[in-house]
Amino acid sequence: MRILLASSEVHPYSKTGGLGDSVGALGKALAQAGHQVVTVTPLHRGIRENFANLRRVDWHFNLPMGPRRVDAQLHALDPAPRHTVYFLDQPEYFDRPGIYNDGHGNYADNAERFIFFSKCIVHLARYLPFKPEVLHVHDWPTGLVPLLARHDRQFLPWPDFPRLCLTIHNLAYQGIFPRPAFGLTNLAPQLFNIETAEFYGQLNCLKAGITAADVIATVSPRYAREITTEEYGAGLDGLLRRRRANLVGILNGVDYEEWNTRNNRFLPAAYDTDDLSGKAICKRALQRRFQLPTEAGVPLFGNVSRLVEQKGVDLLIGALEQLLNVPVAMQFVLLGSGAPHYEIAIRNLAARHPDRVAVQFGYDQALAHQIEAGSDFFLMPSRFEPCGLNQLYSLRYGTIPIVRRTGGLDDTVIDATDQFAQANGIKFQVPEAAALMKAVQKALLLFRDARLLARYRLNGMRADFSWSKAVEALELIYAARTAGTK
Ligand code: ADP
Ligand code: GLC
User: How confident is the model at residue 486 (pLDDT cuts 50, 70, 90)?
Assistant: First the structure.
């Protein structure tokens, strides 16, 4: 099949979180499965410098944005057979320090930036000789694409109109903007209504996508169910319930060529299920890097995360505050960036317990791998989690995930109370610090039982979350040209 993927972030070119990982790996996996894939993404700052093979494509955009017109260029790269990545070059919009914000909050013109990106995607889908059979967009930054494409088709015939798929990676981010932003879409004013793009008087990009896509996917089966409830529906649960027949949960895969412990340039030692001794070397190196006592016998807990409410950072801080109050032998390292009040609280914790807690703020790909490998346990107490990739990386790295029973975390981690022999992690239910604390205490006990600990680790390392299953599930929804196609 010919598939066009579009996303505001695509690893290894750009990434703020799992969205980039997911779309980057999906393109690669679809091409490996024999499909023809084109991925479209903005040319963010730094990409040109880091990817020397980028070539200029003879293509020029000049598209309406409300009353004016905006120009852009195109570059391309062929990372693998059957896969081309197109980079939209519009320096005013995308040559910036961050993808969505500059550390002082979101860019004021995000609506304009991603409406323009969405228009360029529709333009490419229509005019590229590639002629995609499937147009698959991801999250709110490309949420307007299905609506824009349908609108476009009404004015000019579009033979072989592609099947429109939208994956929701996170319903908490919907791309909601004041009404004037709708003018930039150049869509007919009557489309600003409650059945399409309007949400309490504002423009809602993700909602527009949910109403106009043929099929809506999200990134785990449990999250697909959760988002149809008021608790997790972020105001869109009613709409999602109405579209339930076209809503599927497909678990993300992991790119094991990148996230592996055998052949990984970021790790100080290699290891696998046959020989875990390299993991102890990774642990020692991590302790040294964070200037913690290099003791093998002290359990090391790790976390790599966007420091936002979703990730249960408050639970983490609350639980650690209490645990560390007594002289318990444990260490905790964190890599993250996000809300300043969380950073302050965590820095505070580290200052009070310098021999047990260490942090690094900012974004650091190598360190993310080193924490996954060097930790004994990985903490992920998310309040909600559409899929979660870090717990999947932990499993492969022989690091035991401690997670809340929600979304993709519940779908992927096995607790002893679920299946004793297969257990590979520890789960807790109630989103409270006390519940997380109990889970950590279970981990402390587990750490003392070498045989059981080894079994958990091996169970995790043997679990298989490769992309092939997701690709098969996607092939079904890509091909379903009848049921649900508008
Ligand atoms: P989310 O997409 O909600 O942030 P996921 O678990 O799906 O959560 O994916 C997070 C991805 O982002 C992982 O690849 C993780 O390693 C990476 N990541 C998050 N924060 C950082 C950071 N500060 N430095 C490096 N990588 C990070
Ligand atoms: C989002 C979600 C995360 C998911 C990722 C990739 O960022 O928060 O749970 O793993 O997208 O789909």
Answer: very low
Instruction: Assess whether pLDDT exceeds 70 at residue 375.
Output: yes
Assign domain 277-463 to a CATH class.
alpha beta
Q: pTM for the complete prediction?
A: 0.97
- State which ligand 1 atom lies nearest to the alpha carbon of 392: 6
Order of strands, edge to edge, in the sheet holding 331-338?
A: 357-361, 331-338, 300-307, 377-380, 400-404, 426-428
- Same fold flag, 2-253+468-483 and 277-463: yes
Residue 389 near ligand 1, beta carbon < 6 Å: yes
Q: What's the pLDDT band for 485 if we cut at 50, 70, 90?
A: very low
12 lines ligand 1 (CB under 6 A): no
| CB 401 less than 6 A from any atom of ligand 1 | no
309 close to ligand 1 (CB < 6 Angstrom):
no
Residue range 2-253+468-483, CATH number = 3.40.50.2000
